[in-house]
Amino acid sequence: MATNTDPTPDPTGVNLGYAVDQLARALATAATHEDADTRRRADRRMERWGAVLRGVLDGKLTIGSRTPVKDLPAWVTPDVVRGGFATGSAAAGGPLLPHEQALATRMRVAADRAELFRHHLSPHGLNDLWALLDTGAYRVDLPEEAALLTVAWLVRAGDGEAASAVVEEIAPFAGRLRFAPQQVDSAPADPSIMWRKSAGEVREELAARRPNPQIEAMREALTVWNPFADELLTHWLATVVDGRVAERVDEAWTARSRTLLARYTALADRHQHCTKHRNRKQNLAILRTALAEHLTGPGLAPRTRGLLQHAVDSMVRRRGAPGAPAHTVLRAGQATIGALPTHHGIARLVVARLAALPQHIGIRDVDAVLRPVEAGEAPDAAIPVGTAVPDVFGTAVLRATAGTVEELLNAGVVPSAEVLAALVPQLAAASTAAAYRDPALQQLMTATYRAFRNRRSLLLLNLEHQVRLEELPWVRAVQAHRHADADTRGAAAGALRRLGELTLDAFPATALPNPLVRELSALGAETGLRLPWVEELAADIFMGTFSGKYLAAAQIAGGLLAGSLYERYYGIDYAALMAVDDVRTGRYSARASPTFDALCGKRARAGGSTGSGSVAANGTVIEQAQILTTHNLATLVGPAGVRPAGDWATLAWRAFVKAKTLAAQVPASPRPLPVVKDIAYAWRHLVFYLSMPGADPAEFVRTVRSDADGLPFHVQMRLRPAIGGLEHIVAGGTFPPDGTADPDRRRLLGWSTGGHWMLPPRSA
C-alpha cells in the first residue's frame, strides 16, 4: 500500500490517504474517460472507495482489524478493494443472482434469501442438496456457498448436532448472504487439471471487445465511399464538354441525380464510422452538394461551379477516370484490402466457438478453438475459409488452457510466481481434502478450499493473522470427520515438494509471493510438520516487530547454512541466532522475539539505514528479516526436502541472468527503486544456491566475470560492485562490520534510506 503526503487519519492509526487518492483517481476516470465501459467500471470503484471512507468515518469499519466490519463475524468474506481495505459489504451479499431468482421461481417461494434458506432446510431442499453432493455438479465461488451443502452432508452422515450448530451460527445472516452453491451441468474435472481463466471468462472478455473505430472507418472509406465517389464522378463526367462541366442535362441524367442523392442518404444512415464524406472540403462532398444545388436551384453558383470543376479535374488527374486501367487496378486493390476480415469479426467467431464449450472450466484443446476458419462458420462470407485466428486472440484463449501445472508452465501460460500462486490452490485443495474419506465430502471441501483462497487479504495491524479456513463454522463442523494418516500426510508431503520444486525451477530468482507462501503453509500443515513459513511484510504498515515464526525460520536457516558462503556474504552469526529462545507474547498480544526484532534493526543500521518509522527505514529492517530467514528457501530445502530438477549452479546462473536483465531495465524504468529491490532478491537467491552442496562458487564467479565483460556499459557499472563483493567473499574476504564499503566490493541490498549506489542521485 502506498503512502500519501497529505494523510487522512483513521482513529485506528491507519493512513487513509491511499483510500482518498484511489477515490480521486476513480472520480477523474469516471468523469473524463472516453470509453463508456471504462467510465462504468470507474463509477463502481468510486462507489466502493466511497464506502470505505464513509464506513471509517461513521464507525462501521475498523481498518487494520481481522473483523473490519462492525456487524459481520470474521468468517464472512468481506468485499475488499485494493490495498486490503474492506468496503463494509459482504462478498456473498448484494442482489439475488440469476440462479437464485430461478430457484425461487421454480420452488414458488419469495425471491428472498431468507426464504431460499428455509427452502434448503426443508425435506425437498435437503433432497436437492443431497443430489448435488452425489453428482458433484455444483460450483462454489465463495466459501459461504458451501455452508448448506455441508449441513446437508452432516445430516446425511447422522451428525445432526454439528449440522444444527452450523445452522444456528449462520442463520442470523440468512437474509443477507448466499449459503448455497450454483448448480452446473457437470461435475468438476480432475483436480490435477487447472487453468488461469475459464472458457466463459475468456468468452466474455472477447465478446466485450469493440470494433477498432479507425479500422472500421478505413474499411468504409475503401468499400463504401470511394466507390460512391466514383459513381458521382462518372455522373458528372457525362456532362463534360471540351473539358468543362456543363449544366445542360437531360431528364435521364436528372433522374439519375435524384437516385444518387437518395442512395447517399441511405448510405450515410447505415455507415457512420467514416465521416470524411461530410467534410465540405472533400471532393465527394463537393460533387454531392453540387448535385443537390443543381436539382434545387436555377443553376450552380459561380463558386460552386469552380469547386466542382476543380474537384473533377483533380480526381481524374490523380487516379484517372473510373473505368481506366490504372483506376480499375487501384480500386480493385482497395476493395481487396477492405474485404479483409476484421479482428472484430474473427473475435465473434472465436466467441461462438467458446460458447459451445463448458463455461465454468478451462480448455483442454486450445488448438481446436484457434484453428483456421472452416466452411460454414461465417455464413455471411465476410471471413474467408482458411483465415487464421490472429495472435492477439490466441494470447487471450491460451490463458484458459487447462492442464497440469507442469503443462501450463511448459506452455508459457504461467509467466510469474504470482500467477503460479493463483493456480496452486487447486493442487493444495486436493491434498488438504484427502483426509476426508467420504468422496462427496472430499469434493465439497476441495471446492470450499479453492473458494476460500479466492478471499482477498485484509490490511492487518498488530501482528493479527488472516482468517483461517478452519474458522469457517461449516469447515470446523466436519473436522471430526477427518482421518489423517500416513498416506494422506505422505501425499501432502509429495505435493509440497512438487510445488516447491516447480517454484524453484520456474522462478529461481523471485521472492515467494504471499499467496504461494499460504499454500506451502497449508500443505506443510497436512504433512504434520508445523513449519515456519514467513510472509513478505508491507513496509508502510510495519509495526517494528516480527511474529515468533520468523525466529524459527531463521534458526532453520542456521541449521542449513552455518559456515556457508551465505552466512559469510551477509555477515550472519547463525550460531548466536540458534541460541536465542525468548519468543513470548509481546506488546501486540502476539508471540514475538525481542532479540530477533532488535537484531534486524541493528543489522539495518549497520547497513546504513537512518531514522525509523519511514517506509524506507521499515523496508531495511524487513529486508534483514528476509536475509536471516532466507525468506523460506531454507525451509523448502531443509525440512521440506525440496530439490531442483537440475543442479544448484544452474539455478544460480539463472538468478544472475535475471539480475542482469533487471539491471538493463533500470534506466528506462519510471520507478527504478522497485527494480533494484528485485535485483537484490535475485542476488540473494543466487548466493543461497551457491551455498548448497555441489555448487562451485569460485568457478561461478569466474564465469560471471567473463560474461559481465560483454554487457552494455551501464549494466556493467551497476553490477560490477556486486560481482566484486561476491568475488571478495568467495575468496575468503569479509565486508567491514562498520558498514563502510569499498565502491568496487559491495554487499547488494535492495532497500536504502538514502541514495542507492546502483542509481544516480536523481533516480535514488
Q: What gross morphology would you assign? A: globular
Share of helix, binned:
40-55%
Fraction in beta strands: under 5%
Strand order of the largest sheet: 1-2
Radius of gyration using CA atoms only: 34 Å
What are the segments in which pLDDT stays under 50 over at least 5 consecutive residues?
1-12
- Which structural class do you get from the secondary structure elements? mainly alpha
The average pLDDT score comes to: 88
Q: What is the total tally of β strands?
A: 8
Instruction: List the total number of helices.
Output: 33
Separation of termini?
Answer: 20 Å
Instruction: Please outline the major beta sheet.
Output: 2 strands, antiparallel
Can you put this structure into words, describing what you see?
The radius of gyration is 34 Å and the shape is globular. The chain has a two-stranded antiparallel ribbon with strand order 1-2. Strands 3-4 form a two-stranded antiparallel sheet. Strands 5-6 form a two-stranded antiparallel sheet. Strand 7 (584-585) and strand 8 form a beta hairpin. The chain starts with 16 loop residues before the first helix and ends in a 34-residue tail after the last helix. Helix 19 (425-433) packs antiparallel against helix 22 and helix 19 packs parallel to helix 23 (514-526). Residues 1-12 have low confidence and may be disordered. The chain is mainly alpha-helical and 764 residues long. It is built from 33 helices and eight strands.
